[in-house]
Amino acid sequence: xxxxxxxxxxxxxxxxxxxxxxxxxxxxxxxxxxxxxxxxxxxxxxxxxxxxxxxxxxxxxxxxxxxxxxxxxxxxxxxxxxxxxxxxxxxxxxxxxxxxxxxxxxxxxxxxxxxxxxxxxxxxxxxxxxxxxxxxxxxxxxxxxxxxxxxxxxxxxxxxxxxxxxxxxxxxxxxxxxxxxxxxxxxxxxxxxxxxxxxxxxxxxxxxxxxxxxxxxxxxxxxxxxxxxxxxxxxxxxxxxxxxxxxxxxxxxxxxxxxxxxxxxxxxxxxxxxxxxxxxxxxxxxxxxxxxxxxxxxxxxxxxxxxxxxxxxxxxxxxxxxxxxxxxxxxxxxxxxxxxxxxxxxxxxxxxxxxxxxxxxxxxxxxxxxxxxxxxxxxxxx
Length: 382
Hints:
The chain is built from 12 helices and 12 strands. By secondary structure, it is an alpha/beta fold. The chain folds into 2 domains: 2-10 and 267-377, Aspartate Aminotransferase, domain 1 (Alpha-Beta Complex); 15-266, Aspartate Aminotransferase, domain 2 (3-Layer(aba) Sandwich). α4 (98-109) links the parallel β3 (88-93) and β4 (113-118). The longest helix is centred in the N-terminal third of the chain and has 20 residues, at 38-57. The radius of gyration is 21 Å and the shape is globular.
């Protein structure tokens, strides 16, 4: 199988990650922070070292401001619902995943907030102007994706941050597709809160994620056991316990830490360079193919991450993805949990076929897919 669905979850996982998970069952099998014995203490220290690693990797505001979650979706819900109050206004981009748009829509439907959507275009200045036009005196929060999960647009985070700072607005970033592929540095880029999954380009296991912030999250959406201040019925107000109740996924966290160590050693810029080289090769070939619909005129690596979305004339994207599957290639078709992005690009009726490589993808893989696609595009038997 040729696996080109890494934007959904990365595969294969490095052996080092698998070994880190397996070893954790033996070395860190106690519940961290719940007991006074050494076994529990050692597990707590393993978790703490993972917090430190994430904080360092993303240039965060301190390891205490790193809370683990089961995925990026939970992290985004935790972050958004933890800062907004009744009457606040929230702005999101036109490329947001349902992990952002659904909680914001629900808060709006409940009468807690209002929200608006600014359109992202291929013109950076136009995008920023669209954002500024949505700001009101009640705007509390801007939430944007670092990279579109469907079309690969890289949003100008630093410039959006400058706008947010000028108006005293918080900036939250969905790092689902950006983390591990493009540099995300919270303090440098002015990000108040960054939500990330562990299982995508950070190479960690599924069921892992984190929210990193600067202390701005005022409320938690979950209360329960934290291992601290147990006799109080009030949720602890210190971080990370304030946002982290119940037993955490220690094996997953150990695997995530190892994944980040691997990416750190190899270099995020090198990951981007390797994957971009493959996607440029594919894009240039697709440009010359009959019946292929692309959604950009050129491959500009400054504004697009290594993801390609396309369609075949006369075929639904899910039909094309199924043909790939029948021939040993894993890609994603359909709507990618991102209706806003599809409306922005005009693909709400067909969805899009998405190809997303990893640093383990080869030119041989890409050439096989191109040859296969050429047959699909002209309805040739395979």
